[in-house]
Amino acid sequence: MVYFALLLLFIISYSFYYFGKSRALKIKFTSNQKLASLPDYYGYFLVLVVFLPSLLIWFILLLYKSNFQEIYVMSPSLFPDMAQWSDAKFGLIMNKISNLALIVNIPEADLLKGQTSLLNMSSESELIAARNLASFDNIYDWSIVIVFILLPVILGLSISRFINQKLNVQPIVEKIIINIIRLSSLVAILVTFGIFFSLIFEAIKFFQYVNLFDFFFNTSWNPNRAWVISSGETVDPEILKDAFGWVPLLTGTLLVGSVAMFVAIPLGLASAIYLAEYASTKVRDIAKPIIEILAGIPTVVYGFFAALTLAPMLKNFGDSVGIDISAESALAAGLAMGVMIIPFVSSLSDDVIRSVPNSLRDGSYALGATKSETIKKVILPAALPGIMGSVLLAISRAIGETMIVVMAASLRANLTFNPLEPATTITTQIVTALIGDVEFENPKTLVAFALGLSLFVMTLILNIIAITIVRKYREKYD
Amino acid sequence: MTNIKKRLNSERRFKFYGQLGVFLSLLFVTLLMLKIFTTGSGAFFRTTIEADVFFDPAIMKVDKNSSDKEIERASFEALADSVVNNNFKNLSEDEFIKVREMFTRRFDYQLRDYFLNNKNDFNKTVKMNITASSDLDQIVKGNYPRNVPESQRKINDYQLAILDDLTQQDRIGSTFNFWFFTNGDSRDPETAGIWGAIMGSFYALMVCLAFAFPIGLFASVYLEEYTKPGKITDLIEVNINNLAAVPSIVFGLLGLGMLIGVFNMPFQVPLVGGLTLGFMTLPTIIIACRSSLRAVPPSIRHGALALGATKTQTTFHHVVPLALPGTLTGTIIGMAQALGETAPLLMVGMVAFVMEIPGGPLDPATGLPSQIYLWSESAERGFIEKTSAGIMLLLLFLIVMNLTAVLIRRKVEVKW
Questions:
Q1: What residues of chain B lie within 8 A of the CB of A293, using their CB?
Q2: Are A252 and A329 contacting, i.e. CB atoms less than 8 angstroms apart?
Q3: pLDDT per position as a tens digit, A282-306
């Protein structure tokens, strides 16, 4: 029904365009005077007046639906002891009531067995609340219909009375439009602020449980220790002293990342040099998009490939030559990640190498250098800053990569620099912390935000350096 | 002379390294695709066992005059058991359980669905192809080894003997697996389908589009047309470039901390997933829109302004329509990126076991990539081919989207 009403809102807004325009034209012809604005603008004016408030009110209704619901359903007169309930109990009862609301209005004969027993198990006040909830959905749907149909019609009709030949609507319309697009560009900044503040606030909550120093310098990672804590309880910091040590995650991330770069840098760079300097345009036109496919394949596919094919293959290979390779080794995840990152290195390096001016090449050839000597001694040194930039961007990609390591790397922290052993990463632990129950008052959930913050800062620094290097390089030759 | 030879050799070697690099990269693409396609193609077919089904009035609680609703609510469990007993005579209780395990657990649903459409078969015997259990299916497809000790097999010796018997009687068949395309998720691989996940992803992408496209377009119009270069514009520009390189999991944390934590939005729904993906694609769209706005030559703007158009008229009547194909290309590529993204969906809870097909952006759902992740984590052997088949579908969608973008770029985009 909501989507139907939304469609109607569009139709109503659209018809008000013609209504406004025809009204303006009618005034023009009956009074035989010139209009202050073009007739189209009276149409636009009505559309904006009709459309924007409805949309705004709808967003508010949508955002706070659950709040409205709770206020309407959970009145203290039904549940006198409501003030003492914990959040968990509140959620449970709310859940039960919403299950009840689905069946409370069905005649008893049509009910399934489980549903009847659920009805019999519920108290009278719960049943009343469930009936309220069932009627709330009705009220809510109708209020949306009113917002989408009645409100715009009333607004449009009443404001259209103000249209006369002296009302200059063009500046008003343009001002509204400029403000809309100004607000839109603010959203991009708001997203950054949103990331920053949601990470910071939750991380601060985390550091009320865990010492900052313990987090960054402790070498043991056992988040299971926090499982004994129930939400909101104050805890002895000694329990959590050895629970959240960041160091093994960092080394694991760097280990997997190094394996990836070990694959991606030589392959990516070699491809970039070949495609930029040696290949004919025909080969280039075919090979470059195919290599770029590697970057377009969703990472969950690489993760599946690494976990299902690569890891067992490596393990069998290790067994046959007598090396012990873990089934969750950093090697398997790193290799898959390396393949994924090849195009990040090759594409950007390719652009950078091609932007080295031809005069440098010609100069080198004129001195008798071969092609490979020119590339090694002239072009690569000239392109080095740009290549560095692309490598840094690739590293930041590798650090933030999630699905491959979640699926192929280990969950257990292991302080090691041996790629054949299992290792875990920052992103893996973020996912593990948030799968299952999310409790915003428990360090085992909050740690995800602290880890996210460290990840955000690390990648941000890498990106800023990389972007600055690449930009400086471009200025040098452009 | 030797010196020149050495130099030429090193030249050749260097070129070879380059070729090797390209070759290996291309090899990886091929290998990956090959692996996915070979493991995934099996999922499009399911093994069936032919059985005589007698719609026995003595067992069924409904008859052909019952309304559809009554039939939907009736239990066909007893009828399914009778089918097993009739087709395999003289089974002991233990043997009965083993034979029943060879059929899908949704046996009774299949009978019910058949009866709903063929009520006239009441009190008659018909030959039906009943779906086999996933373990049997895997044995028939050859994905499970047969020649291992019984304790390491999901199908025991007794069931294998019956299977061979049935194969000899030509009663083992294979049909196209429609369920894979029409069902939601299931605990049993043979009945699990991808449609719920596709709809979940669809709603999430629609929300993402409705959020990111207008805002991205307006923001780039503002940055390109209305601001003069200065500190604030620089700040926004640096900010957008950095945002484009923030790991996707951090956007997931934003969705969790902000939308769910602060604004109290529900968990697991495509609305929140879509908004999170929207935050993530916003910088991609802004960057694409800006470059296509920048490509519109200034002479167009000057022409419009010279004829007395206001700034807003110039922008929205002339510049934006000319830049629209380019912005569409960028948006489609951004959407393709969002479709393949898993980590943000994981953060906002779109990885639960959801059997129902979501009917809107406020119903609990999974997305296509998160469904793939869920299946890949599942222990049952039958889910491996489902995972690969899911990946094939995902890749197909991505290819279609990217091809559309390329087509728009080739055919519609205005070249200056």
A1: 29
A2: no
A3: 988 888 888 888 888 999 999 999 9
- pTM, to two decimals: 0.89
**Among the listed residues A85, A83, A72, the one whose alpha carbon sits nearest the alpha carbon of residue A134:** A72
Distance CA A349, CA A272 (A): 6
**Token pair in block for residue A122:** 């519920």
Which positions in chain A touch B36 (Cβ < 8 Å)?
A: 301, 305
ipTM of predicted complex: 0.90
Distance of alpha carbon A449 from alpha carbon B262, whole angstroms: 14
Residues A407-460: tens digit of each pLDDT: 988 888 888 888 888 889 999 999 988 877 777 777 888 889 999 999 999 999
* B85, burial (CB in 10 Å: exposed 0-12, middle 13-18, buried 19+): middle
Place of tokens 């949103």: A194
Give A97's contacts (C-beta < 8 A, 6+ positions apart): A73, A126, A129, A130, A133
Structure-token match 């991205």, residue found: B216
Q: How far is CA A467 from the centre of its chain?
A: 22
Number of folded domains that form chain A? 2
What is the tens place of the pLDDT at every residue in B324-354?
988 999 999 999 999 999 999 999 988 888 8
Distance CA A275, CA A280 (A): 8
* A47–B contact, CB cutoff 8 A: no
Selection from B121, B112, B53, B48 nearest residue B84 by Cα = B53
Nearest C-alpha in B relative to A41: B313
CATH of domain B195-411: 1.10.3720.10
Residue A199, in any domain of the structure: no
Is residue B51 helix, strand or coil? strand
Contacts of B27 (CB under 8 A, 6+ apart): none
Interface check for A430 against chain B (CB to CB < 8 A): the answer is yes
> What are the two backbone dihedrals, phi and then psi, of residue A382, each rounded to the nearest 5 degrees?
-70, -35
Instruction: Collect all residues of chain B within an 8 Å Cβ-Cβ radius of residue A185.
Output: 218-220, 222-223, 236
Domains of chain B, by residue range, sit at 45-176, 195-411
For residue A71, give how far its alpha carbon lies from the nearest alpha carbon of chain B (Å): 14
Question: Which of A114, A140, A168 lies at the terminal end of a domain, its last residue?
Answer: A168
Contact check, Cβ <8 Å, B254/A298? no
Residue A227 pLDDT exceeds 80: no
Q: Could you tell me which residues are beta bridge partners of residue B130?
A: B49
Q: Any idea what the Cα angle at residue B7 is, between residues B5 and B12, rounded to 5°?
A: 95
Q: Cβ of B258 and A177 within 8 Å?
A: no
Contacts of A98 in chain B (CB under 8 A): none
Domain that holds residue A262: 247-477
Instruction: Point out which residues pair with A112 in neighbouring strands.
Output: none
Contact check, Cβ <8 Å, A269/B21? yes
